[in-house]
Design goal:
The protein is of the alpha+beta class. Helix 3 (about 65-75) packs parallel to helix 6 and helix 10 (about 215-235) runs antiparallel to helix 11 (about 235-250). It starts with a strand and ends with a helix. Bound molecules: zinc ion. Zinc ion binds near residues 20, 417, 421, 449 and 452.
């Protein structure tokens, strides 16, 4: 599961890609919901689309797209250089990182085939085409990993027709209905066909499954060699064990042991996450895992700071603005969080909007046995803050307060948001194990995201009152948080984060905590009122959760779920602000001399 937001999500986010997915079940449910909305592609659709296309310099653009428009789409992604402190690595460490980056590129190449079987030929075609349309198309292809716009519900920008719902995992003309009815008639094949790690092909008048180890065999062997090379170079034994186990998994197609090994990595500097993970690309069933890689360095100082926050969790639970009977004071387990610097990323995560945090592994058996781990990519969060949140604040926050919007408080509130998911009731008070999620059903996600926001900020106020943070820092937290609400609702309020942000914004507006200036179109934060407004809203959310009040949750969402005109106008002024970043990784240059 990955987090793309905050601080950014796509302008028109496909539902399945823009949410933080907490329980695994929710991730599958979302993938399936999104697949229902995807039109099955037939060869006839493709021919129609191709005929209406516009040809520019040998590139066949989709209808309604021209070179300028495509250039504008590329410009939605602000270029940013991603560097890191190479002096942290000794000579062997550098060689290990180099091997890991090379292995990542191999997986990146596999991912291109996982998106679509036609990708490779299309990329070659684009490489030889000339003119401005070709150049923009090459750039956008390199961002989107294919001819469909991930910011625009996967609509094609090149004349290739709709994206096959089964991406490169299933036969292109196979529909979900056909696959489902075949599986019902052949239940003995269900396990292999619905495996995370197989592709599905036609066989006779039915289907068969081929393991990744066979389908991508040569490349996985090459990646395995590089992982073993890196394993021989890293000092940390737990990292070496993971890399060895992962290399074995590429051949055996069994990823369980290597996922367990990944969970057991500790006291390390080089922190690799590499393999088949997320299932978002599979819009047929949401089963097939895409290859990706995060090569990162653990930040010991940041991780320690985070651990200090984690150590306060019991007192933060006790300080929640609800009666004690609803507090979960003997919570047994919180999943570990680590803070890292991203050195390199490849495959699925590089496509479209860039990941800023992830929670892995996805395999429910491993999660049951080992828990899961949340990883925050600190330098990616910072890059998005600089390129997106700061420009938004410059346009929309009162000039006297805009200086309060700062990376440090913003970043701290992103961290406490993640921690705050682990605060408050998990179960409805007095029920026999009824989870809040089950009680609030489809209304849960938006309320839980908004709860994490306000309980997080409330917790920072609690810590400030105890002298852990200064009053000045807390002020900057409030203003930065309000600025981030504009960023959040900008991308649509039909998705859990966006909806949760809109409720907060309307609540703050109603309570005079955020004050619009109708002349300038900017907003001022009332620093006295916002304190109480945050705690009161935290109380509302927590009580709805504690009592499992499905109807009350609906009423709150209804009352605070409309876009006010001041907000619509504000969002309209953000047109020039980038939607996301387009990273260039400096490690590529550095490693030439390693
Ligand atoms: Zn969240």
């Amino acid at each position: 599961m990955r987090t793309l937001s905050p601080p950014t999500a796509p302008r028109q986010a496909p539902v399945a890609r823009a949410t933080t997915r907490h329980p695994l079940a929710a991730s599958f449910a979302l993938a399936i919901v999104s697949s229902i909305g995807t039109t099955a592609c037939s060869p006839a659709d493709r021919a129609d689309e191709a005929e209406s296309a516009v040809e520019e310099g040998g590139v066949r653009l989709a209808e309604g797209i021209d070179a300028t428009g495509l250039r504008e789409r590329v410009a939605q992604f602000a270029p940013v250089e991603i560097g890191f402190d190479a002096s942290l690595l000794d000579e062997r460490g550098r060689r290990a990182v180099k091997a890991l980056v090379e292995a990542s590129d191999v997986l990146d190449d596999i991912f291109l085939d996982q998106v679509w079987s036609g990708n490779r030929a299309l990329r070659e075609e684009l490489a030889t085409a000339g003119g401005p349309a070709a150049e923009a198309a090459r750039d956008y292809f390199s961002i989107m990993y294919g001819p469909w716009d991930r910011l625009d519900h996967d609509r094609p920008y090149l004349a290739v027709g709709p994206k096959p719902p089964g991406a490169g995992y299933y036969p292109e003309d196979a529909t979900r209905e056909e696959l489902e009815s075949w599986l019902e008639a052949h239940p003995g094949h269900r396990k292999e066909l619905t495996s995370y790690f197989t592709v599905v092909r036609r066989a006779g008048d039915g289907f068969e499954a081929a393991p990744y180890s066979e389908t991508y065999g040569d490349r996985l062997e090459q990646a395995a060699r590089l992982l073993r090379e890196a394993a021989g170079l890293v000092d940390n034994r737990t990292v070496a064990r993971f890399l060895q186990a992962r290399a074995d998994a590429f051949a055996s197609n069994d990823y369980f042991d290597s996922d367990v090994a990944w969970m057991r990595i500790h006291d390390n500097l080089i922190d690799p996450t590499i393999g088949p993970y997320e299932v978002y690309e599979d819009n047929v069933f949401g089963y097939k895992a895409a290859f990706e890689s995060f090569i990162t360095l653990r930040d010991p100082a940041e991780s320690e700071r985070l651990e200090r926050l984690v150590a306060h969790m019991p007192e933060l639970e006790a300080a929640l603005p609800i009666p004690d009977e609803h507090k979960y004071l003997d919570r047994p387990f919180t999943s570990p969080i680590s803070v890292v610097t991203e050195v390199y990323a490849a495959g699925d995560t590089r496509s479209g909007v860039q990941t800023l945090a992830f929670n892995l592994p996805n395999d429910a058996r491993v999660r049951e046995q080992e828990g899961s781990k949340k990883v925050m990519l600190a330098n990616i969060i910072e890059a998005k803050f600089d390129k997106i949140l700061r420009p938004i604040a410059d346009l929309l926050i009162d000039p006297e307060q805009v200086g309060e919007v700062d990376f440090e408080p913003f970043y701290t509130s992103v961290l406490v948001h993640e921690l705050a998911h682990g605060l408050g009731p998990d179960y409805v008070t007095g029920s026999d194990g009824l989870t809040v999620n089950a009680a609030l059903k489809e209304r849960y996600s938006a309320i839980e995201e908004a709860k994490a926001d306000v309980v997080g900020v409330h917790s920072l106020a609690t810590l400030a009152a105890r002298g852990e943070y200064s009053e000045e820092f807390l002020r900057r937290v409030y203003v930065s948080h309000v600025a981030s609400l504009f960023r959040c609702v900008r991308f649509g309020v039909t998705e859990a984060h966006g909806e949760g942000c809109l409720i907060q914004f309307n609540w703050f507006l109603e309570h005079g905590a955020v004050v619009p200036d109708t002349t300038s179109g900017r907003f001022r934060v009332d620093l006295e009122r916002i304190r109480a407004a945050v705690s009161d809203l935290a109380h509302e959310f927590l009580m709805l959760q504690a009592t499992g009040d499905y109807q009350g949750t609906g009423e709150l969402m209804e009352r605070y779920g409309d876009m006010p005109a001041v907000l619509t106008d504000a969002i309209a002024r953000l047109d020039e602000v980038p939607v996301d970043i387009r990273p260039t990784y400096l490690v590529k240059e550095m490693m030439e001399s390693w």
